[in-house]
């Protein structure tokens, strides 16, 4: 494991900044730094799965990752474009304005190499459909914390069907009170009440 | 139907005091929305003072319609004590009818919004929480209306009067009112006002400052709980109670090192001080507290209720806490809104069989009754408590 990946995995914010600065000044390019940061995020995920890390460590590592991305972004733009990344459209459904869970998943997905289109909160079904059409994303992630949001999720799944996209798009729903019962009600392909588990499910979707 | 040998209040008290009951008591945690939605009414501005009594009457109508229940977790709708102490948490509440993004058929929602900056910790440390809030904010949102800080005494009186009307209405029906005051734990208050991500980053970036701020806050929360009890009086259960909303300090969010430093000492101090004053604390534990359950054994015996929302393993809670404190919960929200009566009955029977064994259990819904709860599911929860006998060890 590289020093940078390890520093990120250990949530050493200042060390990560320092190492990135050094690597950008040295021979390592932005793509190599990005690769190390993603390895660091992978380790965070492994520790979370083992019960060594909690939601707070996902938040802190996500923040360090986001800040690091801002630092290397100018250099990244000058580098060769990265390989084709799987695309995910994500948002909190119509009538629900909670964003914590959705934001964590969006950050973790970016850390895992996905191209994420985050539509924010209170997103109507048609806005999800429009973004799926525009981006040709293969995955839709919908979040909601309250029981009335389940009907918004169902309406969105219906809208995706009506747009003729259902067989091209895998759908996952997430939120603190989402259960198998809700998955059945909405017609989604998967459900989760755990951010990292959601990312793992999306990885499985995109691996085919 | 089980042959009843206790009144509703006696049954609730027996559960809290870990004494045998004739059957498991049932006490829904009220949501303002469900009784109104059940009557097909708009849920717009449900928290406005004009709708307080309407909510109370609809809630009482529902009580009559299902044939009654044993307890209510909170006597009234707007009983937050410590008007300024808890007001911060209410600042980011978004109400149907007041915020166009919130459906008028839906619930009150919380919006993550930074109401405090990292620099504010210094002032909290210097002033304590209540004085800080009054200095920082000229207006406070409480319920569905906004009031100026200078007018807080009048508004607090309005809230207390409403609470007392609610409490009296329940007591007239013989229903055990479990808590007269609502509060927060200090960590939760800071997390709500800093936002969860920012507060979490603060724990890593400026831990000593956060701890000093929490140290400066906790006594105001304790004082407000006691003052609230003075205003709202002892309910007919004979037990003064405070319901503390805890959510963001659980093992779902934080490791035990963080919990032991920034969460637990403050909850413990609140409960212990209140217990010494004879106050029973209901710990309203939303999210998953399974990892934290063993700590609850450090709290004074029979002086707490562990109220769970379906994310914590309630069966594990029974194993750990059965000789120590009453457990309340935990019908999952999705089961209330999207399940069938048969599924509801099966789940409630399982709760009664395992968690209700011998004593120490109050059947309730997880968190609050969702607005889109099916009436037949709600009734089934009540009926199952009434009809299905608890198991006994001997």
Strand order of the largest sheet of chain A: 2-1-3-4-5
CATH class of chain B: Alpha Beta
At the first level of CATH, the class of the largest domain in chain A is: Alpha Beta
Q: State the order of secondary-structure elements of chain A, H for helix, E for strand.
A: HHHHEHEHEHEHEH
Give the structure's gist in a few sentences:
Chain A is α/β, with parallel strands linked by helices and 208 residues long. Chain A has helices at 3-9, 13-25, 30-49, 55-78, 100-111, 125-135, 149-162, 180-186, 195-206, and strands at 87-92, 115-118, 139-143, 170-174, 190-192. Chain B has a single domain, classed as TIM Barrel.
Description:
The complex is a heterodimer of chains A (208) and B (394). Chain A has 208 residues and is an alpha/beta fold. Chain A has 2 domains: 76 residues, Methionine synthase domain (Methyltransferase, Methionine Synthase (B12-binding Domains), Chain A, domain 1); 120 residues, Cobalamin-binding domain (Rossmann fold), CATH 3.40.50. Chain A is built from 9 helices and 5 strands. In chain A, strands 2-1-3-4-5 form a 5-stranded parallel sheet, with helices on both faces. In chain A, helix 1 crosses helix 3. The longest helix of chain A has 24 residues. The two termini of chain A are 28 Å apart. Chain B has 394 residues and is α/β, with parallel strands linked by helices. Chain B has one domain: TIM Barrel (Alpha-Beta Barrel). Chain B has 15 helices and 12 strands. Chain B has a 6-stranded parallel sheet. Chain B has a two-stranded parallel ribbon with strand order 1-6. In chain B, strand 8, helix 11 and strand 9 form a beta-alpha-beta unit. In chain B, helix 5 crosses helix 6 and helix 8 crosses helix 9. The two termini of chain B are 22 Å apart. At the A-B interface, helix 4 and helix 8 of A face strand 3, helix 9 and helix 13 of B.
Topology:
The complex is a heterodimer of chains A (208) and B (394).
Chain A: H1 3-9, H2 13-25, H3 30-49, H4 55-78, E1 87-92, H5 100-111, E2 115-118, H6 125-135, E3 139-143, H7 149-162, E4 170-174, H8 180-186, E5 190-192, H9 195-206
Parallel strand pairs in A: 1-2, 1-3, 3-4, 4-5
Chain B: H1 8-16, H2 33-38, H3 49-66, E1 71-74, H4 87-90, E2 93-94, E3 109-110, H5 120-127, H6 129-136, E4 139-142, E5 145-148, H7 152-172, E6 176-179, E7 181-184, H8 186-194, H9 196-205, H10 207-232, E8 241-246, H11 256-276, E9 280-285, E10 304-308, H12 314-321, E11 326-331, H13 333-338, H14 341-354, E12 361-365, H15 375-387
Parallel strand pairs in B: 1-6, 7-8, 8-9, 9-10, 10-11, 11-12
Antiparallel strand pairs in B: 2-3, 4-5
Helix pairs in contact in B: 3-7, 5-6, 5-10, 8-9, 10-11, 14-15
């Amino acid at each position: 494991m590289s020093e940078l990946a390890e520093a990120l995995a250990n949530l050493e914010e200042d060390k990560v900044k320092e190492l990135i600065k050094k690597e950008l000044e040295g021979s390592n390019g932005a793509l190599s730094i990005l690769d190390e940061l993603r390895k660091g995020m992978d380790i965070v995920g492994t520790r979370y799965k083992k019960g060594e890390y909690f939601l707070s460590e996902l938040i802190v590592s996500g923040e360090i990752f986001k800040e690091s991305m801002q630092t290397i972004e100018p250099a990244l733009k000058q580098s060769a474009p990265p390989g084709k990344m799987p695309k995910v459209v994500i948002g909190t459904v119509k009538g629900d304005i909670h964003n914590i869970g959705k934001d964590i998943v969006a950050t973790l997905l970016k850390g895992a190499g996905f191209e994420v289109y985050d539509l924010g909160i209170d997103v109507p079904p048609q806005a999800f459909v429009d973004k799926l059409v525009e981006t040709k994303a293969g995955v839709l992630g919908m979040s909601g914390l309250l029981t009335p949001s389940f009907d918004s999720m169902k309406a969105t799944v219906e809208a995706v069907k009506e747009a003729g996209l259902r067989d091209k798009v895998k759908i996952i729903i997430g939120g603190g009170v989402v259960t198998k019962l809700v998955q059945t009600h909405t017609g989604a392909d998967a459900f989760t009440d755990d951010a990292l588990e959601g990312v793992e499910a999306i990885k499985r979707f995109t691996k085919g | 139907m089980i042959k009843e040998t206790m009144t509703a209040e006696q049954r609730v008290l027996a559960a809290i005091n870990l004494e045998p009951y004739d059957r498991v008591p049932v006490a829904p945690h009220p949501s303002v929305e469900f009784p109104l939605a059940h009557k097909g009414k708009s849920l717009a501005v449900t928290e406005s003072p004009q709708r307080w009594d309407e909510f109370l009457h609809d809630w009482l109508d529902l009580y009559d319609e299902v044939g009654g229940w044993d307890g209510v977790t909170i006597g009234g709708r707007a009983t937050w004590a410590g008007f300024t102490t808890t007001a911060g948490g209410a600042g980011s509440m978004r109400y149907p009818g007041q915020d166009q993004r919130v459906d008028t058929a839906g619930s009150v929602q919380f919006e993550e919004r930074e109401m405090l900056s990292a620099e504010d910790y210094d002032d909290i440390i210097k002033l304590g929480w209540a004085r800080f809030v009054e200095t920082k904010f000229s207006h406070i949102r409480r319920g569905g209306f906004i009031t100026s800080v200078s007018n807080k005494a009048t508004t607090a009186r309005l809230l207390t009067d409403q609470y007392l009307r609610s409490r009296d209405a329940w007591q007239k029906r013989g229903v055990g009112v479990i808590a007269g005051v609502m509060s927060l734990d200090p960590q939760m208050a800071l997390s709500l006002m800093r936002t969860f991500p920012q507060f979490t980053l603060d724990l890593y970036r400026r831990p000593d400052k956060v701890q000093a701020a929490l140290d400066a806050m906790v006594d105001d929360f304790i004082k407000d709980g006691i003052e609230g009890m003075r205003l709202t009086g002892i309910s007919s259960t004979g037990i003064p109670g405070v319901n503390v909303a805890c959510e963001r300090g659980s093992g779902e969010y934080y490791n035990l090192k963080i919990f032991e430093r920034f969460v637990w000492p403050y909850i413990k101090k609140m409960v212990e001080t209140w217990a010494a004053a004879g106050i029973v604390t209901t710990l309203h534990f939303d999210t998953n507290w399974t990892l934290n359950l063993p700590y609850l054994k450090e709290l004074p015996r029979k002086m707490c209720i562990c109220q769970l929302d379906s994310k914590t393993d309630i069966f594990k809670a029974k194993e750990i806490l059965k000789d120590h404190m009453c457990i309340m919960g935990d019908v999952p929200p999705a089961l209330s809104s999207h399940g069938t009566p048969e599924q509801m009955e099966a789940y409630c029977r399982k709760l009664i069989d395992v968690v209700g064994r011998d004593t120490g259990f109050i059947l309730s819904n997880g968190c609050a009754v969702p607005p889109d709860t099916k009436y037949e599911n709600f009734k089934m929860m009540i009926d199952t408590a009434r009809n299905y006998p608890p198991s006994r060890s001997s």
